[in-house]
Specification:
The complex is a heterodimer of chains A (about 325) and B (about 120). Chain A is α/β, with parallel strands linked by helices. Chain A contains ten helices and eight strands. In chain B, α1 packs antiparallel against α2. Classes of the chains: A alpha/beta (about 325), B mainly alpha (about 120).
Chain lengths: ~325, ~120
C-alpha cells in the first residue's frame, strides 16, 4: 500500500506537479534524498552518525518523469546505486523530486541538495557520480549548469555523469501532444477547446521535454502552449565531466528502430546527436551505447545497463 | 494529514474547475442554435426568452455544484482539524526533510509528510 501510494503520488506530481506546488498542495513532493524510505537529514552530525566510515566516492541517482526512486529497483530489490556500493564501495543516494516542476527548477533544487550533501559529508570525497534516468538526466544537466554558475562545491567533484534514456534533444511524444492541442484549440469548437485545455493541464515538466529545456531562459517569457517553438539556450557540457549516454532501442535490431528508440525517446535524442537546429551541444559519441531490445522503463533497472555503468566507473579518469 | 488535506484540495479544485469548464461548453454549444433561431421571423422574442432561461438554468446548476463542493471542502477541513487535534503524537505531522528551499521565483512548496517505505527491500 505504502509503495503504491508513493508511486501514485510520484505519477501525480509528474502530471500536475507544477500546479500542486503553485497552490501549496500537500501532495507536492519536495526535493530530498530518500534513505530507507525516509528523507535523509543532510546535517553534518546526522551524516557522520549515518556514515561512520564514509566512502570517498558517492553516486547520486535521479529518477525520471512521473516516477520515484523505485524505478531503479531491479527484480532482486537492488538498484544501480546499491550494486555500485556492493561492488565498488560507492555510497548511493537516491533523489526524489517533483517531476512536474520545470526542469530548471528541479535542477536548481538538486544543486542545493548536492551542495548540502558534500558540505556535510563526514570525510573526503574523491568523486561524485551522477546517474539520471529519462528526465533525471536532464535534471542532472540543469543542476550542473546552475552549479557551475554558482560555483557550487559539488561541481568539481562530479567527474562522470550517466544519462540513461534521457531526451537531450526532446521527446517526439510531447511535440505531438503540443501540435495536437494547438490544432484542437484552433478548431474553434467548444468541445475541442475543452479537450485542448484539459490536455494542456499537463505539467510544465512534461512540456520541458518537448525540446529538452534545461535553463530558466528556455521557458521564461514564452507561451508554453505555442506551436513547436524551441527557445533553448546553450547549456555547454562541462569539460571536466565525462558524459556517458545509454540509449535503448525496442527491437533487437538497432537499425530498424533507430527512429523509434525506446518507445518514448528516439536514439538520436538519447545519444545526444545534436544538429544546429536542436540548440543543444553535440555529445561526444565515444561514450554512447545503444542497447537493443530495451524499452524506456527497463533502462532504469536492467543488469545489462548496470554492467555498462560499472565498467565505466572502473575506468581510470585522466 | 498534510497529504490528506492535499488530496481534499485537489478534488475540490478538479470539481470546481471541471464545473466551470463544462458550464462554459454548455453555454457555448447552445449559443449557435439560439443565434439561428433568433434570426427567424417571429421567433426572436420567444427564442431569446428560452435562451435566458437556459443560460440561467445551466449557471444555477453549476453554481449549486460549486457551492456544495465548497461547503463539503470546508466541512472536511473542520473534520481534519478535529482528527489532527485528537491524533496521538506519533500520528502528528513529522519533521520536514532536510531539503534546500525552493527557488524564490515560485511559491515554495509545502514539505511532504515523511514518506513511507517505498523500497522493495523494506516491503519485504
Amino acid at each position: 500500500m505504502g509503495r503504491n501510494l508513493e508511486l501514485a503520488i510520484g505519477a501525480l506530481n509528474g502530471t500536475v506537479g507544477d500546479y500542486l506546488e503553485r497552490t501549496g498542495n500537500g501532495l507536492a513532493t519536495a526535493t530530498h534524498i530518500v534513505d530507507g524510505g525516509q528523507p535523509l537529514d543532510l546535517s553534518a552530525a546526522s551524516l557522520a552518525a549515518r556514515y561512520p566510515d564514509p566512502p570517498r566516492r558517492l553516486v547520486v541517482l535521479v529518477h525520471g518523469l512521473m516516477s520515484t526512486e523505485d524505478v531503479f529497483h531491479l527484480e532482486d530489490g537492488t538498484t544501480y546505486g546499491t550494486l555500485l556500493e556492493r561492488d565498488l564501495g560507492i555510497a548511493p543516494f537516491h533523489v526524489r523530486y517533483n517531476s512536474g516542476r520545470r526542469i530548471s527548477e528541479s535542477g536548481a533544487s538538486i544543486d542545493r541538495l548536492l551542495s548540502d550533501l558534500v558540505s556535510g559529508w563526514p570525510g573526503p570525497i574523491d568523486e561524485l557520480l551522477l546517474i539520471g534516468h529519462s528526465m533525471g538526466g536532464l535534471v542532472i544537466r540543469s543542476a550542473t549548469h546552475v552549479g557551475s554558475e554558482r560555483a557550487s562545491p559539488w561541481v568539481p567533484l562530479a567527474r562522470r555523469a550517466f544519462y540513461v534514456g534521457s531526451p537531450h534533444l526532446g521527446a517526439p511524444l510531447e511535440r505531438f501532444g503540443n501540435a495536437l492541442t494547438w490544432a484542437l484549440g484552433k478548431l474553434g469548437h467548444p468541445v475541442t477547446a475543452l479537450v485542448a485545455d484539459i490536455v494542456n493541464l499537463r505539467s510544465a515538466g512534461v512540456k520541458d521535454l518537448r525540446y529538452g529545456n534545461l535553463r530558466r531562459e528556455d521557458w521564461e517569457g514564452h507561451d508554453a502552449d505555442a506551436l513547436l517553438e524551441n527557445h533553448r539556450h546553450p547549456a555547454p557540457l562541462l569539460p571536466h565531466i565525462r558524459h556517458h549516454l545509454i540509449a535503448g532501442s525496442l527491437s533487437p535490431d538497432v537499425a530498424s528502430t533507430i527512429l523509434l528508440g525506446d518507445v518514448l525517446v528516439p536514439v538520436r535524442s538519447a545519444a545526444g546527436r545534436a544538429a544546429p537546429k536542436d540548440r543543444s551541444p553535440h555529445f561526444p559519441q565515444e561514450h554512447v551505447r545503444i542497447l537493443a531490445g530495451m524499452n524506456h522503463l527497463r533502462l532504469a533497472h536492467d543488469p545489462q545497463v548496470y554492467a555498462l555503468i560499472r565498467a565505466w566507473c572502473e575506468e581510470a579518469l585522466p | 494529514m498534510k497529504r490528506l488535506r492535499g488530496l481534499k484540495a485537489l478534488v475540490h479544485d478538479v470539481v470546481d474547475k471541471g464545473s466551470q469548464a463544462v458550464e462554459r461548453v454548455q453555454l457555448d454549444t447552445a449559443k449557435l442554435p439560439f443565434d439561428i433561431v433568433e434570426r427567424m421571423p417571429g421567433l426572436k422574442v420567444p427564442a431569446s426568452g428560452v435562451r435566458r432561461i437556459y443560460n440561467a438554468g445551466v449557471s444555477n446548476v453549476h453554481g449549486m455544484i460549486r457551492l456544495v463542493n465548497d461547503v463539503t471542502s470546508e466541512s472536511l477541513d473542520v473534520l481534519l482539524d478535529v482528527v489532527a487535534k485528537n491524533a496521538p503524537p506519533a500520528a502528528a505531522p513529522e519533521a520536514e526533510p532536510a531539503a534546500a528551499p525552493e527557488p524564490a521565483a515560485v511559491p515554495p512548496p509545502e514539505r511532504p509528510a515523511r514518506a513511507r517505505s517505498s523500497s522493495k527491500k523494506e516491503a519485504r
